[in-house]
Every structure is written in C-alpha cells, then in structure tokens.
Amino acid sequence: MSTPYKLYIDGKWINSESGETFPSLNPANPKDIVGRFQLGNEDDVNKAVDAAERAFKKWSETPAPKRGQILFRAAQMFRERKEELARLLTREMGKVITEARGDVQEAIDMTEYMAGEGRRMFGYTTPSELRDKFCMTIRMPIGICGLITPWNFPIAIPSWKIMPALICGDTVVFKPSSDTPLCAIKLVEILEKAGLPKGVLNLVTGPGEAAGMTIVRHEKVRAISFTGHRDTGKTILKEAGLKKVGLELGGKNGIIVMDDADLNLALDGLIWGGYGTTGQRCTAASRVIVHEKIKEKFEKMLVNRIKKLKLGNGLNPKTDVGPLINKAAQDKSKSYVDIGLEEGGKLLIGGKVPRMNGFFFEPTLFTDCSIDMRISQEEIFGPIVSLIPVKDFDEAIEAMNSVEYGLSSSIYTKDMRKAFLAIQRIEAGITYINSSTIGAEVHLPFGGVKHTGIGTREAGILGIDEFSEVKTVYVDYSGKLQKAQIDIK
Ligand code: NDP
Q1: How much is the pLDDT for 2?
Q2: Residue 228 CA, ligand 1 centroid: distance in Å
Q3: Residues in Cβ contact with 287 at an 8 Å cutoff, skipping those fewer than 6 apart
Q4: Please, are residues 60 and 54 in contact by the beta-carbon 8 Å criterion?
Q5: Ligand 1 mean position to 145 CA, how many Å?
Q6: Which of 47, 129, 171, 338 is deepest in the core (most CB within 10 A)?
Q7: High-pLDDT (> 90) share of the chain, %
Q8: How deeply is 319 buried, as exposed, middle or buried, from its count of CB atoms within 10 A (0-12, 13-18, 19+)?
Q9: pTM
C-alpha cells in the first residue's frame, strides 16, 4: 500500500494526531484508490490555527504587491502542470477531461487575478464636511481565515478562497472535501513551491464534523468562508459565533425557453447546463421552463440529444457524462426518480443506474412537472432535469422564482424587452441571456440570493470584501479640535 499523504501545517508535511487515514476513490472505478489521507482532528486544527497565528504578523505586513509575486509564480506553475492536474482531477472526481482542464484553468485565472489585486486593493477618498481634514478608506487583513470547500470544483473553488485571502494578508486553515483531498494537496504543494512562508497556508484533511467544525468554532479564527450544501451552511452559521461568515450554498437553477427562442441554441445550453459535470454544479440547470407552444417539439429535440450522450470514464475523450461523486450521490439520484414518479412527473428518458462499474447514473428528463413538486424544488445534484410547461412570460418568471434558492438563471428569447424584464425580475445572483446557467468568469462577482447564501460574493473586485476589513481613516491637519456634525458653519 502506498504511503498516506500528509497534513501541511507550519510549513511541514506531517501525520495527523489521530494516527488514522481514509481513502479517496476514483468514482469511475471505485476499486482504484487514488490515495490515503490523514484523518485530521481537533488537535491538528489547533496546531494549524497556532501556526497561522504565528505567521500572521509578518505576512500581513508584507507589501501586497510582494504577496502578489508569489501568486504570479504559483499561477505559472499551475499552467506548467495543467494537464497533469486535470488528469488527476478526473481520476479523483470523475469530471470529463475537458471540464477538468476548465477547472484548473479557473484556478490559474483566479490566481493571476488575485496576484494583480496586490497592486490595486483599492480604497477610496472622499471630501470631509470640515476644512483641512482628509478622509479615506483602506483595506486591512482580517486575521486567520478558515476555508471549507466542496468536491465538485476541487481545484477552482479552493483557489477562489485561498488566493483572495492570501493577497489580503490573511493566514489560512484550509479543510477540503473528503472526496477530493488529493486535488487540495496538489494545490497547496504548488503554493509552497512558489515561496509561501511557513504557517501562512495550512491544510487539514479530515471529516466535516471533527476537522471542519473545529475550525468553525475556533476562537482564534476570525472568518469562515464555506462553499457546500445549504444544510451544512446553516449549521456553520449557527456555530461560528462572532466571526465574519461567507456562505456559497446550493442552487435549483432554471432555464426559460420562450416560444420565440432559437431552439437549437437552447438545446445546446440545456444539455451543457443540465448534464455537464453530471449535473453536479451549483449552477447546473436542473429545471427547464418551457413555453407550451414549443413544448412538444423541444421535448423531442431533448430526448434525441440525451439518447446520444455517452457515459464513461472522463479520461476517455469520447465521454460526455462522467460518474457521480460517490454511492450516496447515486442513491440520491435514484431516490429522486422514485419521488418524481410518485409525484406524477412523466419520465421521458433515463432514470436508472446503468450496468457499469462506477457511480454512474443515466441522464434523466422528467416532463409535465409542476412548480411545487419536490423534483422541481429540491437540489438533487445529479443528471436529472424537470421540464415545467408554462403558458406565457409572466408564468415563466413565476416558475423561475418559485424555489428557495437563487443562484443562476437563464432565458432564451429573441425579444430584447423580455430579456431585460427577465434580468429585472428574476431572483438570482446570476442571469444569462441566450446562454446556459454555467460558465462563471473570475473577474465578475459570483454568488446568489435567498437560500444560496447570505449576500457575500466571490471573485472579481468584490471577491476581496469577504477576506478583508475596511478601515475608515480621518486625517485632521487643521491643528485644532474640529467636531463633526457640530462645527459645520
Ligand atoms: P457539503 O456541505 O457536504 O460539504 C462541503 C464541505 O463542508 C466539505 O469539506 C465537508 O467535509 C465540510 N463539512 C461537512 N459537514 C461539516 C460540518 N458539520 N462542519 C464543518 N464542515 C463540514 O457539500 P458537498 O461537498 O456535498 O458539495 C455540494 C454542495 O455544494 C451542493 O449543495 C452545491 O450546490 C454546493 N456548491 C455551491 C457553490 C456555490 O458557489 N454556491 C459551488 C459549488 C458547490 P467532508 O467532505 O469531510 O464531509
């Protein structure tokens, strides 16, 4: 058996205090054990927090452009190793190789973007109401940030958190998903090689409850940034105490297809949004809201296309749809097919676990769904799409907004008036016009409304808000006591 991978604490690769390890499996072939990893516990988290605390002063006082140079070096290393990382990602998570390359590219883009932020990190100046007084805002690091990430973008999502935290001068304790610890280790190795000082970034692999929750509750951790399931997010919010908390949670995203839409374009968008990454994206299109005039035609087009999707190992270039992440996810998809049938949804295609090695599930389409069915409301995180027929634009918007989540959304129409009305009326953090629900770019803010989060945004210029504090500075050079709101004549 190969040597277990280690935790990274205070610049050293070490074993967990628990002395235990856990495996990470290839979801396309669960007999293929990707590696064994340390089962980090409370003691390991405490060590990591202490290391992050020791490293904070020096790192936070390092000029931000210098911090940026380390990130630029890391971005270059990511680029040189892109193919190797993408293949590893496919092996550990199952994503088809083209999408895995996209995941790594996103990490490169984010690393470069945040490296550049080292020379911006803007505050602002504004006039004072008093004479001879200067007012401005500056950005301050927060302190130790606890970063907890899911498995579905195992390199990109950690980089969406680690890079802004580092550029802002924070130190980090990072707990990745237990389904994709090797991707996390590779990311940390690159940052180490790029020259990150010891203790600035610490990695603890291990279970959500023991390792994750210890970070969340730790008194010395000043901020938590979490991406994952809504219910985990709710628990984290309750347990974090007086910390800054950023939550990026689930979605039940929809695509509206109006009767004037370019149906071939909408078809491409739905196939990509609904079945890409096997439906395991927070922005996946799991609902298609279709005008009744084109419903039958669009259903036929969808079924014909879904029939042609090839399931398989993501390393095979002919594969369109890879496996689900694990057995629990496969069971969950199966159970939602049963729920959909019980609720009266009409199964047009798919719905079964195919006879394949690995955690595969057939791309599935239900039609004649109503907005209140569980398959139209709940996040399944599998290749299952509900088609909801509507009679007009207003009903389409109502259907779109009928869910508790509000992450991504899309409308296909040639009518620009309807497109702009949709932008205005849809309750979501992201709206696409004539494009699918997926495909975030790192220089734009990313996040959702309603149960998808609590208002924070990652990426883009707003991405550093989560990892910095704003200080307001007043410089009075009048040489006398001036009282705001009082000495205003
Ligand atoms: P989970 O919430 O199950 O896990 C996410 C992370 O939290 C993992 O590292 C997990 O550790 C950890 N964790 C689990 N329980 C706890 C706990 N009690 N305390 C602290 N940490 C804990 O989500 P998934 O990994 O299954 O990811 C899928 C979800 O993520 C979907 O709902 C998806 O929509 C959402 N997501 C949202 C995005 C967004 O930007 N809005 C983007 C991508 C995904 P462990 O693995 O050890 O259990």
Answers
A1: 81
A2: 3
A3: 252, 253, 254, 255, 369, 376, 385, 386, 387, 388, 399, 400, 403
A4: no
A5: 17
A6: 171
A7: 99
A8: buried
A9: 0.98
